[in-house]
Structures
1.
Amino acid sequence: MKKLSALIPALLFMTVFTVNAAWEQPTLGYTLSPLSKPVEAPNFKLEDMDENEYDFSEYRGKVVLLNFWATWCPPCKREMPSMERVYQKYQGDNFTVIGVNQMEDGDRIFSFTGSLDTRPTFDILLDSESKVSQAYEVRGLPTTYLIDKQGKIRYRAIGGREFDHQEVEKIIQSLMNE
């Protein structure tokens, strides 16, 4: 009985912590803010975790969901699965997703993506000096831009989103049909 009474506070703490941890998860929205006037997306060259270089200009002709994120960012982690789902759904239709990680190394990103239920298959690029995020005027993470086939930024979202929500998918389909 003495062992059980000593165990009860620990079990109570673990239960309360688990419930509160789930309760405190950031909610994800689904709205994207249209830019009043589309602007040219800044071009950049970045490497992925395997040191392969990507030139953003090579994505011209595709609708691009460009997401700035970091492993320490809870809403970034929460929105990753929805980015993968929308990528899988539309990738063959002139659409792609690019994740631009902020100031973290490839080993940390590899470990993080490996811990997710579904490992992302879209391109993840490293902005180790945060120069690309500065060019895109990123002020908080996650920040996402939806770029049309002509390379113009058309929509922006600051904070976590469910990118496979039907409202977001309508926007993506609309841009793909232009």
2.
Amino acid sequence: MEKSLYQFYQNNAVEFPSGKDTEGKVAWQSPSNIAIVKYWGKHGNQLPNNPSISFTLASARSETFVKYQTKHKEGVSLDFFFEGKPQLAFGEKIKTFLQSILPVFPFLNHLHLTIESKNTFPHSSGIASSASSMSALVMCLMEIEKKISDAQILNETFLRKASYFSRLASGSAARSVFPFASLWGKSANFDDSSNEFALPLEQNLHPVFKTFRDSILIISSGTKPVSSRAGHALMDGNPFAAARYEQANKNTGDLLNALKTGDLEAFIEIAEAEALQLHALMMTSKPSFILMQPESLAAISALRAFRNETGIPVSFTLDAGPNLHVLYPETHSSQVKDFINEELLQYCQNQNWIDDFVGTGPSPIDFIS
């Protein structure tokens, strides 16, 4: 299927107008996302071994600015700057990605790109910067394509294509292009679901989940001992991989139902089990890695005690690192933030935490010269 869909996009590729000089600029912001059902393990060209479901964040986002102008020597050409400084190594990664999608975006052969990117969140903060940065870049490419073709593209078509190519750049980026929440990966519980692109869950989301907060506790800002790419690869030899994929498929169906009905108790159970299972998989891989720190466990224990004492439906999840994402409905924001400030800051490096919430996805922004 992936070949046929890629072929479809290639057959509808926008060619650069012959003999025409052009220049312009586009800018998009795209948020990161936090997976509730985790994507861990992949095959082929960035295809997931199990479906995943994520919340789209709001404040934690990348802003990407692209200037483009005609050049007369074919080949991908770009300059890349991150937060105002040239980043040659990452620029080469982007160049490799753009070269891989030239059959679908052939106009890139005729343009020089100046790309500037920045994040609203610090590096190594437990937020997936590749998801936000690569989806923002793809949104810019899609915008350039629209300008060159002068075509009217339906929003649903635009976003599905953006999700497809964001996935090729960074797997979890497929989920960042939709508002509120999304599903990525084939699931028997959701029609039209696919390993090739994510789908929006906005129409299947109880209102309470559109108000969710995500308070991110920075237990450690240090670089984690294993990259996500390497972590995915370790699933190939993990003795619990088959059971994991079976459980992830079940949790996907259960979570879809909880999100639709507003079942907070089921949501908490699934979210926390998924987070801990992710870390258990890393502990049982070969080589094994312990990504949580003592402060992570202490914060989890304190959060669960707070929930038991107050009845407030607050829960946690983690990515492949030590930092906690504290999840809760907006109606309990005041009590939970007081709890964070009074009880959980002691476990945070330099008492640092990020206040975020479920958001509405990518959007064009004003270009800043």
3.
Amino acid sequence: MGGTDLLGSMQIRYAVAGMPIQHSLSPVLAVLTATHLKQAGLEVELDEINLLESKDVTSPMAWAWVNKNRQRIEIHNRLYGDPSTTSSHLRLHRLASTVVSKVKTADTDYVPNSETLFDRVEDSIKIRRGESESWISLTSPLKHLLSPRSGVHPLDDSLENGTVNQLRWDGNNWFCAGTDGNGLVAIARHFGFDFESTGVEAPLLCMVGGGGSARSCATAWSSAGGSIWAMGGRRSLDKRGPWVENLISGDDVVDNIGMRLFIDFDTKPGVSVSNRLTDADLHLNSSYNSQEVGLILEQSESGFKLDGRWLLTAQHLAAWARIFSPEASHLLPGLGLTMTRLLAMESALRAD
């Protein structure tokens, strides 16, 4: 089917692909978001959910093409099990329905400057829909493996910059987007960063690393008007990207008086604390531990410390708004509400 109608009755197969992958909370967020839209009146169903462990991007793309007799390695998450099994799948949907019905408002601590929504602002949205679609969220090390010659239609500059973290197969064509950076900027705005400020008052991104997520964040941050201090790391940020005009040197950082966000992309997946810290209004962890839920928002002497669930949630909502269901983006839940529901869902899974 085609046109600009809302999702309608459509079978959706969702997967998270990368390595490691067993710690991922993306399946939980996917079910929560789909349940929210369903309760808003859309006939959206996640008929299948998979964790796909892979070091190459062709394997998850092949999963999207093949509907029958698929052979795959079972991957078990301690919190929700293997989402490809019927029991875990039904359990996720059952608990999500309860959580979404009960949790209607955000925890007040999670909306310091009112709610942040992810509604698209384009005047017209034209999107072709298949009767069955496959949606894939990519994690490390897959984000840079697609090229402009891959036959994938980019919805932004993620293919050119090697920052693809979302794929959609509509039955005939592949589409891609990068939402890590959109999520980071949304979080900054959520906590009071003013991107209208310029010069030495511009928001400053203090960033360790230069991989796919880092490049996505540098692109979005510079596009929003912020300055960037690339602090090195295992892989330095490329000096030839679209963010180059917004880079400032370490010597100039002291003169910057804008709000600062620090993030370390060299943190290993599943590790929720960075070994490197700097003075910043917002310390955002790039990773999280799905087996532990401490303080996801902690007040420090200089500002806030945020668990990696914030970045995961923000980029996931941006994915629904930009590539998965842009025609229904005005119905998506906000960042604060989704964070509140995510923690409630984790508690429900542990208690069930």
4.
Amino acid sequence: MFRVIAVTLLTLGLLAGCDTSQQGSSPTPADSPIPIKVVVVTMFETGEDSGDDAGEFQRWNERRELDTVFKAPHMHHDIRVNLKTGVMGIVTGMGTAHSASSIMAVGLDPRFDLRNAYWLVAGISGFDPEDASLGSVAWADYLVDGDLAHEIDTREIPDDWEHGYFPLFSQGMDDKGRKDYSLGEVFQLNPALVDWAFDMTKDMELPDHPTLAATRDLYVEHEVAQRTPFVLRGDQLAAMTFWHGSLMNDWANDWVDYWTNGTGEFVSSAMEDTGTYQSLEYLDRAGKVNKDRLLVLRTASNYTMPPPGETAADYLREEQHDSYAGLDAALENAYLVGSVIVDELLNNWDTYRDVTPGSEAVPPEPKTQD
């Protein structure tokens, strides 16, 4: 009896936080959670949600008319929804701790039915200049955690070691023995869904800008870095530490290679995506979400190493969070490419509600919610 009362009070308390004044809508009854088709996951916003300098969330908020606000004191940021289209937008906060807790919070929120929802992470990132150029967009197959590790100060590492940072349960980067994946060191997204998203967007012509050319032309030793923006496939390394430099870039490539058994390719560096997946995995076990409907789209706002002639320290000081050379292009292209997928899902929801793109299997029975 106490449990029922507690859950009811929680539900009513959350529903009381629904700000529907902008559209005059009525709060949803506690026994009728709002069905959500797509959750757009962003990590930060600068200032307000609209009308000022845009972060990751603002374009989605304005252009997708996410005009119903659901107060979310249990999260980093309030939840916004377009009740007509079924698109939700959230801001998790930066770092794996924020992303994991925010995703878990929205996944357990009784106001929403997320069992059929698709999840689109759309955020900026540092990119390896060996693989992509500023403004480029990468779909990830693997999410690799860069924090779970052993570490020795680089001034104390053995002479035959390249890095002082090496995997848990190993004797070094060259140790090919036991790998324990139980802590969330690496996650693989649904390959068929990633194939579908990449095929839908790989031939898109992305806008270019003179400011992008001015920076990418400095990377004379990296042919791909000098290209105009393009869509590619490349894996995401999530770490709470904002690292930079050619030596750390070498480590990142080795790290992704190690945890994916040579099948992954480090392309983008950010902070959140393993936390996002970990919460979705737990929520999937509870029947709240379908973790196989997650897509991670990262866009290049900056490079992970400096151009020839500049030190890592100097270039890192130049490339700060609000002044990345490719920031505006990365934000715009995240929306442009991500919207192709969102529109396809919405326009053909009768199909995609029950059958995940790329799946040839018989649709599973809908999950029940306890």
